[in-house]
Specification:
By secondary structure, this protein is of the alpha/beta class. Helices cover 18% and strands 38% of the residues. It contains one helix and seven strands. Strand 4 and strand 5 form a beta hairpin.
């Protein structure tokens, strides 16, 4: 199971919208890294990926087996993966 904080939803929505201005077929895929999680641009899901709705306009691919809370940390709006049920970070003024 995956949860997205409102801050993460906002970041992912804006990233998807920006990518599609240059490549209408581009989609974001959330995948594990050594540091947690990252969003990468792809055209097709990998085997076992599922779709996750960010909002009414944005759906991304999710790596199979990825679980937790997708949140954001400063600086630079970095995506992080936390255990389910974690307290979301508070977004500072932008």
């Amino acid at each position: 199971m995956i949860e997205l904080t409102e801050w993460a939803r906002d970041i992912l929505h804006r990233a998807q919208a920006a990518a599609r201005r240059f490549d209408p077929d581009a989609r974001l895929r959330l995948a594990r890294t050594g540091a947690g999680v990252q969003a990468v641009l792809v055209h097709e899901p990998e085997a076992g990926d599922s779709d996750v709705a960010v909002d009414d306009e944005t759906t991304l691919f999710l790596e199979a087996g990825l679980e937790g809370l997708i949140d954001v940390e400063e600086p630079h709006d970095r995506l992080v993966l936390r255990p389910l049920g974690s307290t979301p970070n508070v977004r500072g003024p932008h």
